[in-house]
Amino acid sequence: MFKLNSKFRGKTVPLAIMISPVAAWLVLLIAVPLVYVFVISFCSVSESHKIVFSFTLKNYAKLFNADVLGVYYNSLIVAGVTTAVCILIAYPFAMIMSKANAFKKTLMTIALLLPFWTNSLIRLYSWRTLLGKNGYLNDFLIWTGAIDEPIEMMFTQGAVVLGMVYTLLPFMVLPILTVIDKLDKNLIEASKDLGAGIVKTFRHVVLPLTAPGIFAGSIMVFIPSLGYFFVADLMGGGNNQIIGNLISRQFKSAYNWPFGAALSIMLIIVTLVLVKIYTKSGGKIDELGVV
Amino acid sequence: MQENPKPIVEIINVNKFYGDNHIVRDLNLTIYEKEFLSILGPSGCGKTTLLRMIAGFEYQTDGEILIEGEPAVNKEPYQRNINTVFQNYALFPHLSVYDNIAYGLKMKKVPKNEIRQKVAQAISTVRLEGFEKRYPSQLSGGQKQRVAIARAIINNPKVLLLDEPLGALDMKLRKQMQIELKSLQRKLGITFVFVTHDQEEALTMSDRIAVMNKGVLEQCDIPKKIYDEPATKFIADFIGESNLFEAVVQNEDNGVSELYSEAGELLGKSGEFEREELLYVSLRPEKTLFSDAPIGGFSLYGVVKESIFLGNIVKSIVILTNGQAVKINTPTGTPAPETGKNTYIYWDVKDCVMIPAVSNKIFKYLEDIKYEEELKIGGEEQNV
Ligand SMILES: Nc1ncnc2c1ncn2[C@@H]1O[C@H](COP(=O)(O)OP(=O)(O)O)[C@@H](O)[C@H]1O
Ligand SMILES: [Mg+2]
């Protein structure tokens, strides 16, 4: 927003007129709600769930209540494991993709992005037919004799992580692919020339030089996996609450908008801090993909 | 070079294909210990490919490469006593100058003390004291170059491969680095294989020059021989300036051959040529001479199109009767015809170079082709 405004200065009027509808749109859709959330995070609620405009910090104090700390803990584990699993899958995938010829590369990009054309709820729901008590995987395992009774695979923390990885994997692949594509292949040869084998070359040259992509991808996966409450709902069945569930509950059923707003502000601050660390360590903001 | 040079790299009948593209053709080259060998040729002629095969990054499609007398097939790049200075330096951007140079030793698990000592030594060899903590992005082209060299020589290679190392530098720095590289090679007492497309650079720096054209090694010899006795029309053209006369042998007599070209009669060296054999007679501009009157055996006649004063020489261009342009350099002060004047042209027979035309070679190749097979194919086609 502020960037847009500063860009206006010194520009000719026609450009300002051209950009102003976009600017107005951004103000309306992003800035206004953000300011609203910020303001009500300092308000309190009346008995009848009405927002009362009086300054208070108790919503922020409540962020450290014992009952919500457990949710943070669960959420951080889900987000952490999701990020780690995404790195482990995305890195080799991106490497193969970077080496592939144009045709295979296109195929892999389509495979990666095609699921986005269907509704994510439907896609997540389909995991039930695979992993549910009467799902195909249980049927298969019983058929092979590996298990006697169907085991509960849905509605576990593992299932939530699976759903998160499934939903967020592309956000890890794309930034990593960008850095791998940019890696000068001569550096790998130089390393081999100087006596390093494949493993040492990976550790001392490839990994450090692709680390910014891993970090960018991690931000893009970690932050949403704190908030994607519908994944936790569908895959965790209500037993596995994440911060996103907490926020959505404040707005939908608990009718405590100010506390929900305080939680949201906290998430935004965490995001900004992570992005700041990323740019401080030399990362580029547009390589994060969608900002 | 020593009296009895020992071969260190032997390239024997090597061919390299990328798909259907024949990049390196039947190449034979022996590289000796402690020599400064330049590989010279225009961009795209296969110099880098040849260098990469020596380094071990690429394998020949057929033929053999011996390193220190042993086949190189199964040797990884780091198992060869060879290091490379890459075309764009390929410094590790995330490592400091010190760590870049120390990389090879660290990979070989050399003790820390020894690393420190050797890096310090390499840094002083390339005169980069005080830059240890900098990163490649904070260095100029010339400094990057020095780091790349230090990083390669710290491993004590017997051969250093340099792929157009001076290509990215400006003229002045380039001249300075040429001198430094040459003295570095003498100091280290190792073989330098120096790839360049700059003929002047190759002529001034090398013990020997290998000239490549379209994947073929056309000549490998000392600079003076390459300059004075180019083996092919391409080399006569590519190295320095030449006037080339396409001519047919008429007669040979007393060490002199009489030839006939489109522009007129001319004389060349004898060399057991056949009558009617097609040749190129090549002359350096400084060996091509003006004359007011016809000289025996020559009937080349033309008009001076322009003459340019270049300090110690005057460069003239003469258009002969057939339209061919001839370059003539005369030392300033010696008489030369003015622009627009008519003149005869001649030369001292000992100054010219006789180059067999490629078409002669083509006839030799044709002799090798098995005509029976060719005819059979032809016959089948007729049946269809
Ligand atoms: N990896 C490769 N795949 C296909 N063609 C290549 C490859 N590397 C080089 N070539 C081709 O081989 C030819 C010679 O290249 P190169 O050895 O780099 O030439 P030079 O170093 O003399 O400029 C060029 O036509 C180039 O396009
Ligand atoms: Mg090259």
CATH hierarchy: architecture of chain A: Orthogonal Bundle
Give a short account of the largest sheet of chain B.
6 strands, mixed
CATH topology of chain A: MetI-like fold
Bound molecules: adenosine-5'-diphosphate, magnesium ion
Strand content of chain A: under 5%
Inertia-based shape of chain B: elongated
**Could you give the order of strands across the largest sheet of chain A?**
1-2
What is the strand tally of chain B? 20
Compute the number of helices of chain B: 10
- Name of the CATH superfamily of chain A: MetI-like
What is the level 1 CATH name of chain A? Mainly Alpha
Radius of gyration of chain A: 23 Å
> What is the typical, i.e. mean, pLDDT of chain B?
90
Count of domains of chain B: 2
Task: State the helicity of chain A in percent bands.
Answer: over 70%
Description:
The complex is a heterodimer of chains A (about 290) and B (about 375). Chain A is mainly alpha-helical and about 290 residues long. Chain A has a single domain, classed as MetI-like (MetI-like fold). Helices cover about 75% and strands about 0% of the residues of chain A. Chain A has a two-stranded antiparallel sheet. In chain A, strand 1 and strand 2 form a beta hairpin. Chain A is globular and about 70 Å long. Chain B is α+β, with helices and mostly antiparallel strands and about 375 residues long. Chain B has two domains: about 230 residues, P-loop containing nucleotide triphosphate hydrolases (Rossmann fold); about 120 residues, Nucleic acid-binding proteins (OB fold (Dihydrolipoamide Acetyltransferase, E2P), Beta Barrel), CATH 2.40.50. In chain B, helix 2 packs across helix 3, helix 2 runs parallel beside helix 4 and helix 3 packs across helix 4. The longest helix of chain B is centred in the middle third of the chain and has 18 residues. The chains are: A mainly alpha (about 290), B alpha+beta (about 375). The complex binds adenosine-5'-diphosphate (ADP) and magnesium ion (MG). Adenosine-5'-diphosphate binds next to helix 1 of chain B.
